[in-house]
C-alpha cells in the first residue's frame, strides 16, 4: 500500500467531485445465476468460498479496485483481498481478510483456515497490505438487497447476499454491491458485476 497523488490517477475528476461528499457511496443490485457454482459445491467446496473466489477473479481485472480513497488520501494497492464476515463462537461476528490468489486450492485453504481461526478466537484477522473487498452472507434469509452502513471510516467496496432461490433448474442469488464513487463510477461497477457473472459461468 502506498499513498498517491489523486491528480495523477484516472479517478481525479471523481476525487474532486466526491471525496468530501457526506455520503459518497453508491449501491447497485444484481441477480446472479449461480447454477454452475452449485455443481461445484457438490464436489466439497463451500458455496461462500466459491462466490468469494469469483469476486476476486472479477475484481482483479478492474484497475479501479486497486485505488481507494481514505479521508484526504488516495491509497494504491498492488494486491486485492476478500474480507468475510464470520459468526464467532460467542454469537458475535468478526471479519476475516483473505488475500486473493488465482489458485483455487490455495484460496480455499486460506478461506477455510482463516474463517476457522476467526470463529474460534473471536478476533478479526486482517491483511492491511491488500485492498479488501468486503462481503457478508445472510444465507438463512431471503433478501432483495441491502445497503451497508456508511460511516466514513470503511470506504471499501462491499457485497451482501442472502439465500439463493431455485427457479426450475436455474439457481439465482440476489446481491448488492456498494462502492465509493471516487473509486469507480456506475459503468465500472456494472462492468465488474458483468465479469462476476462471467466468472461464475466459467464453472462447467
Structure description:
With 204 residues, the protein is an alpha+beta fold. The chain contains five helices and ten strands, in the order E-H-E-H-H-E-E-E-E-H-E-E-E-E-H. Strands 2, 5, 6, 7, 8, 9 and 10 form a seven-stranded mixed sheet that branches. The longest helix has 18 residues, at 104-121. The radius of gyration is 17 Å and the shape is globular. The relative contact order is 0.24.
What is the gist of this entry?
The protein has 204 residues and is an alpha+beta fold. The chain is 30% helix and 29% strand. The protein contains five helices and ten strands.
Task: Count the E strands.
Answer: 10
Q: Roughly what is the average pLDDT, rounded to an integer?
A: 94
Which series of helices and strands comes N to C?
A: EHEHHEEEEHEEEEH
User: How large is the radius of gyration?
Assistant: 17 Å
Amino acid at each position: 500500500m502506498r499513498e498517491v497523488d489523486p491528480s495523477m490517477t484516472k479517478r481525479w475528476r471523481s476525487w474532486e467531485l466526491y471525496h468530501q461528499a457526506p455520503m459518497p457511496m453508491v449501491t447497485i443490485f444484481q441477480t446472479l445465476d449461480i447454477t454452475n457454482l452449485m455443481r461445484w459445491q457438490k464436489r466439497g467446496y463451500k458455496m461462500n468460498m466459491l462466490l468469494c473466489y469469483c469476486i476476486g477473479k472479477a475484481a482483479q481485472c478492474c484497475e479501479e479496485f486497486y485505488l481507494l480513497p481514505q479521508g484526504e488520501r488516495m491509497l494504491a494497492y498492488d494486491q486485492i483481498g476478500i474480507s468475510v464476515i464470520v459468526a464467532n463462537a460467542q454469537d458475535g461476528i468478526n471479519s476475516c481478510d483473505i488475500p486473493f490468489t488465482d489458485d483455487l486450492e490455495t484460496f480455499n485453504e486460506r478461506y477455510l483456515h482463516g474463517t476457522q481461526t476467526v470463529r474460534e478466537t473471536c478476533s478479526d484477522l486482517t491483511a492491511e497490505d491488500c485492498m479488501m473487498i468486503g462481503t457478508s452472507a445472510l444465507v438463512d434469509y431471503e433478501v432483495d438487497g441491502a445497503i451497508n452502513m456508511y460511516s466514513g471510516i470503511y470506504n471499501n467496496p462491499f457485497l451482501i447476499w442472502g439465500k439463493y432461490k431455485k427457479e426450475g433448474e436455474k439457481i439465482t442469488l440476489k446481491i448488492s454491491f456498494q462502492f465509493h464513487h471516487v473509486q469507480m463510477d456506475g459503468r465500472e461497477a456494472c462492468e465488474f458485476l458483468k465479469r462476476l457473472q462471467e466468472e461464475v459461468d466459467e464453472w462447467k
